[in-house]
Design goal:
This protein is of the alpha/beta class and 375 residues long. The chain has 11 helices and 17 strands. It has 2 domains: 221 residues, FAD/NAD(P)-binding domain (3-Layer(bba) Sandwich); 108 residues, D-Amino Acid Oxidase, Chain A, domain 2 (2-Layer Sandwich). 33% of the residues lie in helices and 22% in strands. The structure holds flavin-adenine dinucleotide. It comes from Delitschia confertaspora ATCC 74209.
């Protein structure tokens, strides 16, 4: 059987909405996803989906109604406080950026794609091509696939498609989030719900932050934003299983000058998951088009998480699918060239904004953050 025209590597928000858009346009494709099956644990926090980017892509994919069934408009509320818990600013719910859990978004997209178009348990190990030839994909499960007219790397931060296009690799930002989920059975739940309510509370001070965000199931995710060496929470020098040791470290070395309510969060944390933050730089964008390959979403432009990542990823998918539909599968290289020429400037602007956002999130001054978001 001939290969489908387009191979999408990665079934995250970018790869799946691209698949759905191609499906709507009657263009043949296949998605290769590393996760073993549809129920694999794809955890992660709530995402705000913006009107003119993420929501537009969902509308064009015919999925806006399905999105609305899960969108949480009340969780758009945002409060900013200092490290003493004093609220400095509250942003109401009149915005157009409703929240959705990552898992719900994935479910909506998966329901909109024929099951046989997704190859689960296919972790790409390498993508190679010799001059002018089509790309050969080798997967960890032993499968080798080739013959595609276009390979789209939507495989996130550590893309295995990216080396075909650029030598750029993500760099550690010096910043890590430690995440802890507070569910209703936890003794601190009521107090947290009383303090944060709907939406998110961002507290900033002494070069650190704590973000507490309500999720779709009403639990709260707390993120402790730290500036630490890359290896501290990565290579076992501070084993996250040793929750007590991590708590002690946070209390003695990081949040010593924060108020007791924040220290209680740390004292009563039952586990920590580390998210060391890596980024590509704006200089990494602008590669010369490569025949038969392109990148989209985090694979193309991994940035500090400032609320834009998933929206940029879905916009990439929308733009790429539109160009492919316009030029047809006989002229995919033209479609890719136009897509990339549009994507570079659009994305560079957001990467630069996210860098500024990262600086103020880890500052001594919560008012700098307010200034940054125009409050
Ligand atoms: C702590 C944290 C908080 C964030 N908060 C927000 C937020 O509030 N708002 C926001 O907009 N963005 C946020 N982001 C960023 C956002 O998660 C990403 O920008 C977005 O998920 C990018 O989508 P993507 O599809 O390009 O990549 P991903 O979501 O990373 O998806 C990539 C997919 O590819 C698969 N894959 C990876 N490698 C392979 C391989 N070798 N072979 C096959 N498949 C592979 C993965 O399993 C995954 O399904 C946050 C990120 C972090 C780390």
């Amino acid at each position: 059987m001939p290969a489908p025209s387009i191979a999408i590597i990665g079934g995250g928000p970018c790869g799946l909405i691209l698949a759905r858009l191609l499906e709507c346009k009657g263009i043949d494709y296949v998605v290769y996803e590393r996760d073993g099956n549809v129920n694999s644990n794809r955890d992660g926090g709530s995402l705000d989906i913006h009107l003119e980017t993420g929501q537009l892509a969902l509308r064009q994919a015919g999925l806006f109604d399905a999105f609305q069934n899960h969108a949480r408009y009340d969780d758009m509320a945002l409060a900013i406080s200092d490290q003493h818990g004093k609220k400095l600013f509250e942003l109401g719910q009149g915005r157009e950026n409703p929240e959705i859990d990552r898992r719900e978004l994935r479910g909506i997209l998966l329901d909109a794609i024929p099951k046989d178009k997704i190859k689960w348990g296919h972790a790409l190990s390498s993508a190679t091509s010799s001059k002018g030839d089509r790309v050969v994909l080798r997967f960890a499960n032993g499968v080798v696939a080739s013959g595609f007219k276009l390979v789209v790397g939507a495989d996130g931060a550590w893309s295995k498609v990216r080396p075909l296009i650029t030598q750029a690799t993500p760099k550690y930002t010096g910043k890590t989030y430690l995440e802890w989920v507070i569910d209703y059975s936890h003794p601190l739940y009521e107090k947290t719900a009383g303090k944060v309510g709907a939406g998110s509370l961002i507290s900033i001070g002494s070069g650190k932050n704590i973000i507490i965000q309500r999720q779709g199931n009403q639990s709260y995710r707390a993120y402790f934003g730290l500036q630490v060496p890359e290896i501290l929470f990565r290579n076992g020098t501070n084993d996250l299983q040793e929750v007590e040791a991590t708590r002690r470290l946070l209390l003695s070395d990081f949040y010593v000058d924060w108020s007791e309510e924040y220290k209680d969060l740390i004292r009563q944390a039952t586990n920590f998951r580390a998210w060391p933050l890596y980024t590509l730089s704006a200089d990494d964008l602008g590669w010369k088009p490569v025949h038969g390959v392109t990148l989209a979403g985090d694979a193309a432009h991994l940035a500090y998480p400032g609320g834009e990542g998933v929206n940029l990823a879905m916009t990439d998918a929308l733009e790429l699918a539109s160009r492919i539909a316009e030029h047809g599968i006989e002229d995919l290289n033209r479609a890719v060239q136009e897509y990339e020429a549009d994507m570079f400037p659009r994305t560079i602007e957001k990467i630069l904004e996210s860098t500024v956002m990262a600086d103020v999130m880890y500052s001594n001054d919560p008012k700098a953050f307010l200034h940054c978001i125009g409050a």
